[in-house]
Design goal:
mainly alpha
């Protein structure tokens, strides 16, 4: 597992899936009794014309992209999660069998630079 591959996989299963799932839920709210909030959002979405739906999907994509980027910045340690002088650091390890890989090694490219 390389850092680049990790970011590529996260993009597909987290970022892209979040965008697709959001649109899917707007088109057809899931469950037997969707929340009132989701019903209202679905009603709003269905009132949009095709061009507006495309623009809304772009906004959702941009929001997901910024969230994905921000999370990677936190994992890289360039966006801090605590204040003060004595800050900790995050290490993201991938283990498979006997092999271990440090995915956010400060000696390598930042994860957020790989997107």
């Amino acid at each position: 597992m390389t850092a680049k591959y990790f970011v590529e996989i996260l993009r597909k299963i987290v970022h892209e899936q979040a965008v697709n799932d959001t649109i899917k839920n707007l088109v057809d709210p899931p469950g037997k009794n969707p929340s009132e909030r989701l019903k209202k959002l679905s009603l709003f979405y269905s009132s949009l014309n095709d061009t507006q739906k495309v623009h809304l999907k772009e906004i959702i994509n941009e929001t997901s992209e910024m969230t994905f980027f921000g999370m990677l910045c936190v994992l890289d340690g360039v966006r801090v999660i605590e204040s003060g002088e004595d800050k900790g650091s995050l290490e993201l390890w991938y283990r498979k069998g006997e092999e271990t890989y440090l995915l956010n090694d400060i000696e390598d490219d930042f994860l957020h630079d790989l997107i």
